[in-house]
Amino acid sequence: MKRNIHFSLIFFLSLLMFIFVTFPVDARKTNMKKKLHKHHKESHPHSTQVNTYDIMSFGANGNGVSDDSQAFLAAWKSACKVASATIKVPEKLNFLIKAITLQGPCMPGLTLQIDGTILAPSQVSSWPKSSLFQWINFKWVQNFTIKGDGTIDGQGFNWWKNSELSDIQKTHSKQIPSMKPTAIRFYSSNLISVKDIKIINSPLCHLKFDNSNRIKVDNITISSPQSSPNTDGIHLQNTHDVEIQHSNIGTGDDCVSIQTGCSNIHVHHIKCGPGHGISLGGLGKDKSLACVSDIIVADIAMKNTLYGARIKTWQGGNGMVKNVTFSRIKVHDVMYPIMIDQYYCDKQICKNQTGTVMISGVKFDQISGTYAMQPVHLACSNSIPCTDVDLTDIQLRPSLEYRGYEQAMCWNSYGKSQGELVPSSIDYCLRSGGGLIKRIAKSRDSVCYKLL
Ligand SMILES: *[C@@H]1O[C@H](CO)[C@@H](O)[C@H](O)[C@H]1NC(C)=O
Ligand SMILES: *[C@@H]1O[C@H](CO)[C@@H](O)[C@H](O)[C@H]1NC(C)=O
Ligand SMILES: *[C@@H]1O[C@H](CO)[C@@H](O)[C@H](O)[C@H]1NC(C)=O
Ligand SMILES: *[C@@H]1O[C@H](CO)[C@@H](O)[C@H](O)[C@H]1NC(C)=O
């Protein structure tokens, strides 16, 4: 409700801004067209078409060696002022871009057309210590599209090496900072579409949205080696109304990672692997409040991933995960296809704590294929059980790589199982009832209502 009011306000303001800016720009466009027509033999300094801003016309070299950041920024600044402008990164060329922020607000309908390759600096030492958070940062951008046949290459191989070192070696290794950059980040941005492009080899996460709304990701490819640590494909935080579809994601970590403050997220028709599958969390770290709701993950093919459909929370958190559906997921040689882990821990041992992010209303539906470790692993909190967990039409068989437990495991988890269930241990895995816990769910609901 609160968010709706927020939305209407933003919409109303955008409408005002749109009306305000459209008229003078239309007038300008007509003037420009007239001028172009008059001097049609003169070449336009920045573009062939009125609304196209080719970064080559802003001084880019496109040789992959010299720094083209200033040209990129200049093209952005010019295009940003014009409605429905296109910034072109032309094909067959390589553009070396350092850590930059491309900032809005811009006129609506801006497009970044990437047909060539954008490269990050490959030497760790050439990254300033002050800009290790991300490489390309889109900030306060509205109604904006990235598309094209091109590639965004984070050249992360020098950053990944660190993970092979021990903790002691790491503290002595001055070259590689512990913070690594995300490749593409959208911060506080709305109405964003990312399609067709490839994003590869990020030092850390490939594509991140935080504090953003109305996001569409379609037909993209994300890849980095299986051995690259913490290289999530797509990472969402405090972000609402998202559709991620028809994409191919294979990295060293989660294909899609949904973090706190996310709602109304629809992820479908994704090929995922290698990596850690599609995850909600880790939520509730350091006793924090975490709220995630209204998530649909459907029509997914997972191959050689560590997990399939997963929810992970740290012990000690607060808040709630609710209304989550994982359906029509085909797994091939996945270690743990169905997983709830409320004891998530990044060390050998984490302290036992009583609080937890409550989990309620999770459907696992039509999940089939092969597993290598355990078909179903639901480890819910000792303090507050998971409720309304449904397991429907689950058919999981050991893969050729199988070396684990054939029994489904459910701990402190209430719900119902139905339809075809293989292995049959899934049928008596969940507990029935759990009515008393509904009261806790209600109070968590009101805590999260304020956050989402
Ligand atoms: C985005 O901008 C374009 C170009 O100005 C406009 O036609 C379109 O309606 C805008 N989209 C939304 C959802 O406001
Ligand atoms: C998907 O993106 C590729 C470029 O990476 C493009 O060639 C193809 O036409 C796109 N497919 C659709 C359905 O748009
Ligand atoms: C659950 O989430 C889905 C997807 O966002 C939404 O369409 C549906 O209305 C939600 N159901 C409830 C009971 O809130
Ligand atoms: C946490 O609790 C579990 C189960 O009660 C117990 O087996 C385990 O040893 C405890 N761990 C620590 C670190 O206290």
Write the layout of secondary structure elements.
Layout: H1 2-38, E1 52-54, E2 63-67, H2 69-80, E3 86-89, E4 94-96, E5 100-103, E6 110-114, E7 117-119, E8 134-139, E9 142-147, E10 151-153, H3 157-160, H4 167-172, E11 182-187, E12 190-195, E13 198-200, E14 207-210, E15 213-218, E16 221-223, E17 234-237, E18 240-250, E19 256-258, E20 262-272, E21 278-283, E22 289-303, E23 307-314, E24 318-334, E25 336-344, E26 358-371, E27 376-379, E28 386-398, E29 409-411, E30 413-422, H5 438-451
This protein binds 2-acetamido-2-deoxy-beta-D-glucopyranose (4 copies).
In a few lines, what is going on in this structure?
The protein has 452 residues and is an alpha/beta fold. The chain folds into 2 domains: 49-233, Pectate Lyase C-like, CATH 2.160.20; 254-452, Single-stranded right-handed beta-helix, Pectin lyase-like (Pectate Lyase C-like, 3 Solenoid), CATH 2.160.20. It is built from 5 helices and 30 strands.
Please describe what this structure looks like.
The chain is an alpha/beta fold. It folds into two domains: 49-233, Single-stranded right-handed beta-helix, Pectin lyase-like (Pectate Lyase C-like); 254-452, Single-stranded right-handed beta-helix, Pectin lyase-like (Pectate Lyase C-like). The protein is 16% helix and 44% strand. The protein has five helices and 30 strands. It has a 19-stranded parallel sheet that branches. It has an eleven-stranded parallel sheet with strand order 5-8-11-14-17-19-21-23-25-27-29. 44% of the residues are buried. One 2-acetamido-2-deoxy-beta-D-glucopyranose (NAG) binds at residues 83-84, 108-109, 143, 191. The site of one 2-acetamido-2-deoxy-beta-D-glucopyranose has 3 residues, from loops.
